[in-house]
Write a structure and sequence with these properties.
The protein has twelve helices and eleven strands. The two termini are 47 Å apart. It folds into two domains: 105 residues; 211 residues, von Willebrand factor, type A domain (Rossmann fold), CATH 3.40.50. The strands form three sheets. It has a six-stranded mixed sheet with strand order 5-4-3-6-7-10, sandwiched between helices. The chain has a three-stranded antiparallel sheet with strand order 1-2-11. Helices cover 40% and strands 22% of the residues. Strand 6, helix 9 and strand 7 form a beta-alpha-beta unit. It is elongated and about 115 Å long. It is α/β, with parallel strands linked by helices and 337 residues long.
Amino acid sequence: MRFYSWEYLLIFLPVLGYIVWFFFYNKKFRYYATIKYPSVNKIKEIASTTRINFRRYLIVLKIAALFFMILALARPQAGQKAEEIETKGIDIMLALDVSGSMQAEDFKPRNRLTVAKRVLADFIKGRKTDRIGLVVFAGESFTQCPLTLDYNIILEYLKQINFGMIEDGTAIGMAIANSVNRLRYSEAKSKVIVLLTDGENNAGIIDPITAANAAAAMNIKIYTVGVGKIGGAPIPYHHPIFGKQYYRNPDGSLYLTKLDEQTLKKIAQITGGKYFRATDAESLKKIYKRIDALEKTKIKAKQYLQYTEIFSPFLWIAIILILCYIILENLIFVKVP
């Protein structure tokens, strides 16, 4: 808060001097009234009532009214901080694998997809001025949410992602091509795809390297994230009779997930991005924090204060106090000459 006409506050100096004089040195205040009389012995015998004692303190209402009147004259103003942000931002497409292998339970709690959704949600909440879109893929790929600044909307779409949305498989090339298509008309200073998968490309009509070259031609950077513990993990499924089971090879051994790290590294290299490997939930969180730090929007901000006049409450208080003083002095604590 500030006082626009602060010089009016200087009136408090003589007012303060008057208050000190009135309450400590003014004999009229101490004895309130005098009367000429040959002898005051009889007057002293008259008992002082509460009404008489209270009347002398009516001056406090006048002083308080003056106090708030001076504050109103000084024009108090409340300041509110505002900020202008100038930035072109970054456009980010998040490509998420929803194939059956993402049901592997080496990421706690539950499975790889559950953990990935939570990490992506935190990543989205950490952005401020960047447009974010969401692509999901398995045997095919489609856009779950186009580029948007409405993070609440994209978080709702993220919640809806689950297994069985798309025919099973891993179409990495199609996921990249779909993301590139969403970014090709972007005018952002930086265009990024963050692709998360736990498998190898085995579906779709576009291979990952061709899609990566197309992204590089459009100055789109791709960060690839491979998930799954070293050596792979068994994939569960629900059997209608026996309940939870695991996929097996023809010889009866457990079928384990397979991650094509070489292709993911090549995709990142072609586009100027980076490849990351996540072997558990904690390492996946750290990876997205690193990507978040690598792709930060440079914000040019201008801060200023907006002031609002707030003198009216002080003025109304002063008026109310003056009215109270007038009513009390003339109707309740009447002074007989």
